[in-house]
Amino acid sequence: MLYALCFLMFTIGLYCTVVKKNMVKIVIGIVIMEYAVNLFLIMLGYRIGGVAPIVVEGHVLGNFVDSSVDPLPQALVLTAIVISLGSLALIISICVRTYEKYGTFDITQIRRLKG
After folding, report:
1. How far is CA 95 from CA 3, 7, 64, 103, 112, in A?
2. Most exposed among 12, 41, 47, 56, judged by the fewest C-beta atoms under 10 Å?
């Protein structure tokens, strides 16, 4: 069920990216898609009743592996968040420079101006 909600969130972001004509709405759609992928990756590593993947003395290793959550998706998502913030800053700066040049965020008007 939760995976379907991630897919729905990704679909909403894809709709905003493909259909909308305002550059700010397109950027918001891209951000929504990034959040949906990050949430999906985190849910892949989650385990109900799981414990933190820290080995201490006295744990049986076989039982520990079966009951701990997977730390790899968490690390990947942290890296993806940092990269997406950098790309978001770049995209927003491009939108600002485009607005300064053309005076609009509408991509159909920008295509007509071509200057």
Report:
1. 32, 27, 49, 11, 17
2. 56
- Here the tokens at position 92 are 């927003």
The burial class, CB within 10 Å (0-12 / 13-18 / 19+), for 52 is exposed
Query: Mind listing the domains of the chain with CATH numbers?
Result: 2-47+64-113 (1.10.287.3510)
- What global pTM score does this model have? 0.82
User: Whole-angstrom Cα distance, residue 25 to residue 103?
Assistant: 16
